Amino acid sequence: MEIRIDDRKKVAFPRFNHYDYAIRYIVEQGLEAGFVLLPPATKETADLGSRYSPDYACAPFKHTLGSLIEAVEAGADILVETGGLCRLDYYGELQKEILRELGYRCEFINLAEYMGGKKKEWLRLAKHINPKLNPAKFVTGVYEGVKMAEYIDEIEAAYFKNAGFEAEEGSYKKVYRQFLLEMQMAENKNEIRAAYQKARQAMSGLAQRIPENPVRIGVVGEYYTVMDEHSNQYLQEKLIRLGASVHRFMNVTNCHFRAKASTMLPKISEYARYSMGPTTTWTINSALDYAKRGFDGIIHVKSFGCTPELDAIPVLQNISRDYHIPVLYLSYDMQDSDTGLDTRLEAFYDMLERKKKVLQ
Amino acid sequence: MKRKAYLGIDIGSISTKGVIIDENNKILAECYLWTEGNPTEATKKVLLSLKEQFDPERYRIVSSGTTGSARKLVGSMIGAKMVKNEITAHAVGTTTLHPDVRTILEIGGQDSKIICVENGVAVDYAMNTLCAAGTGAFLSSQAHRLGVEVEEFGEIALRAAKAAPIAARCTVFAESDLVHKLQVGCPKEEIIAGLCKAVAGNYLNNVAKGKKIVPPVVFQGGVSKNAGVVRMFEEELGMPVLVDENGHLMGAFGIAVLAKESQKEGEFSFDVADMEFRTREVTCGKCANHCEIICVYRDGELIDSWGNRCDNGAIKSR
């Protein structure tokens, strides 16, 4: 009798909104390795992260560290942390040390070391994770995984744009959740595309009841906090429940595959002549775009102490003054309570709605 | 037929305010007292006081609203038709009484905010973010240290020849500044004037940062009763700062106006003041989020609950 043991290594990545599904697809279908898909983050994750983090590290550091610890506990063999254009580039190194000091003996891959490296290096890394790697399958897997991320971004954007106006409560959420479930289960590109088309069709068929004074809000800000729902305390979900249409330009598709800093800089030259670091160009560009398109308000999201986004604030103040558009500034640390956020968002929404009613 | 009246209650961290207005926004009854950490008891006292001033022969209350940090709790307690945040309530209240106002400065017990107004409607606002530096709580803790009543602060500050420089960005640093000034023999009134100046300066540098302050300016919230801070604001801004005699009631007034505007009417009875309200905090154990769910009981019967992040934690009344 043949005993089949799954000897594939199990890879884990820190949680990052719904992109976990796309990363899982790349790992399982492309790399043909195992993947540890973590359940949604809880307060426990945040507590774990804060307990072992330096106090002044930004909130994304704490959230990702919490995720990584939970992943090792869940049986991951290889932890992967990404690099970036700000302090994030150093975070992998630091988290590696912290996990070692905590006594975890799993392998740690810091992608910061590979950023800007040659393709050969990446392939060597992939072969290290899975020695039986099929390079052609790997490349296809990456391509299809990226496609999945783009579909997720598109459906997510449609959800937040329209769900605030839904005629039947929960109808959009139902389609959205079903779509995410199918993204978790998809094993090839046909399944991905079929689920995407189904969700698009279902969403466009839903009835809407557009209020007398519809409020459109643009959300801009720092990469991780603005995209990761758990980090921003479900900001966009709260806004659609108040009845607003919520737009967010910043997502993986627009940040990595579509909009380029070099094409955005000329558009914002009136406000910023050079890039101020990681995602500030995206922040300013989308804020200016929302202002020009006549949005009712902008919400700026960052983690507490995020220096690049802090630099973007004076520029946003200028845009706010020139285009007469209010901006709400939110700074996230590891809060427990939603009360403060709820009060601010409700007040912001009420203000925009009343303003529209009186000034139209 | 009896004329319609509207009730508004503003339950803040430090004080609880209540008003009853008629259809023309005229205040029929008002009450202001300390919350003392017990919003349900404070609300009962406010209701009893309002009941005494209220003429049930001529008016009947057709709608009610609550605002302030305990708005949800008290809202379900009195069955309010309108439960709204204090920023909206203050903006609506002030623009109703002063339609020409352009800037509203507000410093309360634990928060401070600025509201910019154009054509009688709020167009921008900002609120203090992380701590309570430079709010009423800061002033009363410093008053305690100096052995003066916080109510006398304004009067004393106005007597001072000059204001001692004190940093108000952080309460802890302000306190060490203050101790230092006392040790070098600085007169008390100059220190108090310095505190008032620090509150105004801190507000303009933090909360009002990046906001254009255009006259007419209305200053309200508990700290607006402090004449010293008012004068410091006038000096810093170089424009008159108006303090409404009903400034402390503005939140309650605003929410009453909002309840009137909502046109949602429902029976309200002063009997709730005699009922027993109890709240219980339950920690949901269904996932690692451990949401704290607050349950409100009226005479032992569950009437409302909130605090759960997902449906798994929903507690429903039978």
TrEMBL record, chain A:
This is Uncharacterized protein. It comes from Candidatus Mediterraneibacter stercoravium.
Automatic annotation (TrEMBL), chain B:
InterPro entries: ATPase_BadF, ATPase_NBD, CoA_E_activase_dom, Dehydratase_Activator_Redct. GO terms for molecular function: iron-sulfur cluster binding; metal ion binding. Residues 7-259 form the ATPase BadF/BadG/BcrA/BcrD type domain. Its cofactor is [4Fe-4S] cluster. Keywords: Iron, Iron-sulfur, Metal-binding. Pfam families: BcrAD_BadFG (PF01869). The keyword Transferase does not apply. CDD domains: ASKHA_NBD_O66634-like_rpt2. This is 2-hydroxyglutaryl-CoA dehydratase. It comes from Candidatus Mediterraneibacter stercoravium.
